[in-house]
Fold each of these.
Amino acid sequence: KNQVEQSPQSLIILEGKNCTLQCNYTVSPFSNLRWYKQDTGRGPVSLTIMTFSENTKSNGRYTATLDADTKQSSLHITASQLSDSASYICVVPSTNKLIFGTGTLLAVQP
Amino acid sequence: SAVISQKPSRDICQRGTSLTIQCQVDSQVTMMFWYRQQPGQSLTLIATANQGSEATYESGFVIDKFPISRPNLTFSTLTVSNMSPEDSSIYLCSVGSTSGAAYNEQFFGPGTRLTVL
């Protein structure tokens, strides 16, 4: 069964600290993996898309990694800011639709 | 990227009534989708809105409950019919990339937060 699992379910960190979110997937065949940020009351916004051949991809303070062999991805946030407080969703396309993870709810506290 | 707007942004409705949600895109797009996000849950695809033909519904969703219109390449509506409290969710419109494969990129609208009393 095609699934995307994320951990932790929620996370609280202090402003300025780093954190890493995890995503494991069992979707096959695999073409790409996406990380989205969803602010409260808003729609998801794409942070990065990683294809099979990419190991690391950065978007500002966000760095995503992909290990296609172990079917794992991580999203590392550096020097967190209060505005990073959001839900982070890992998404992997299946044959005809997107498979969404349940998300990691990140709270950055001052 | 595509800019997507939805109306209304939120609503509180009575059980048994219906609500129509509008989705407007700033450019012509081939693929349009409707998702539901229940409280504390991730997104679930309701249907693909096809221009000029009936929408394609996912398992567990039916046209009588969620009728969809797609009159052109920039606009779609989703109606939540005969609502019950279990329909309380965020409903999101999404569009696919117009270049390359349909799932190269998807953009999401801001969502419509529906509460059914």
Amino acid sequence: QISLEESGPTVVKPKQTLTLTCTYSGFSLNSFGQGVGWIRQPPSKAPEWLALIYWDDEVRYSTVLNDRLTITKDTSKNQVVLTLTNVSSVDTATYFCARSETTGCFDYWGPGSLVTVSS
Amino acid sequence: QSVLTQPPSVSEVPRQRVTISCSGSSSNIGNNGVSWYQQLPGKAPRLLIYNDDRVRPGVSDRFSAAKSGTSASLAISGLRSEDEADYFCGAWDDSLGAPVFGGGTKLTVL
């Protein structure tokens, strides 16, 4: 069965770089049409999409955060990594990774990883 | 400010039917498939509906959805207490070249 799980720090200091890893299983990110995305959700707010990486290495980023985000994949490890530079308190959120097989749709989600930006 | 617009909250009594709306534009809902997600407190979103009105296998048939023009709706019939959750709509936006979400609707089962 398909599963994804996020891992990374729970607390990050302001101006540091946040690195999160999504480890997935049950599907191949080398297969046509597959993608993995990152979505974050501040407490009591709506989800905000951050980035997507596809089977063919195409990447897409949120226009709002484009210059601060990098998404990469390592299919040998079944992992997708997201980095967010120069964090501040507004980046405090639960970060989810999710599979995308249909354009704009996320069918399997990880449980989420709460990240707090605090000195 | 979310690209897709949903009412912040809806409420209904058990066994009744409730509808949640999602309004967008020609660059998202009007030209792409709509998805609906359920998010229970403290949990990750769960996909319920994809491609406008396709119920995901394993999801109760009490859930249904429709789309007309640049608006979509999710209906839940035979309401139960376990349906109390946040519901989000989503779609691809051609202008942004990105997926977008609604602001979410909190369903309260009275």
